[in-house]
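About this split. The held-out portion is used to measure sequence recovery: a designer receives only the structure tokens and must propose an amino acid at every position. Recovery is the fraction of positions where the proposal matches the reference. Here is one held-out target exactly as it appears in the evaluation file.
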């Protein structure tokens, strides 16, 4: 008798199982290397934007640098340049925030 059809079915099942295992491993790797670091970065950026205070120096995503003079819920007003031009931006436009240092003991002395 020919039992080739029984062994072919077992090999097909093992092949399907290994394929699902590899697919699962790929999903876990994508989560660890793509999704999780992106969520960490987004959380860090949201924290930076929510900790915005009056007097902080801000750089926008467009490259405009200025000092924060007013803050509302999702917008802020920034003063730029020596002519003190005031521009209103959304908080989402913030790329970097440099906190205002009011502690004179922490500032480095120039010699």
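Reference sequence for scoring:
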């Amino acid at each position: 008798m020919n039992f080739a059809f029984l062994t072919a079915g077992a090999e097909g099942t093992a092949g399907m199982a290994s394929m699902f295992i590899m697919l699962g491993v790929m999903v876990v790797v994508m989560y660890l290397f793509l999704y999780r670091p992106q969520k960490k970065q987004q959380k860090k950026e949201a924290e930076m934007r929510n900790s915005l205070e009056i007097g902080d120096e801000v750089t926008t995503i467009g490259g405009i640098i200025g000092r924060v003079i007013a803050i509302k819920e999702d917008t802020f007003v920034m003063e730029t340049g020596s002519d003190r031009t005031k521009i209103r931006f959304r908080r989402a436009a913030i790329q970097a925030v440099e906190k205002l240092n009011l502690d004179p003991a922490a500032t480095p002395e120039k010699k």
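Annotator remark: Strands lie at 57-60, 65-71, 75-80, 85-90, 94-98.
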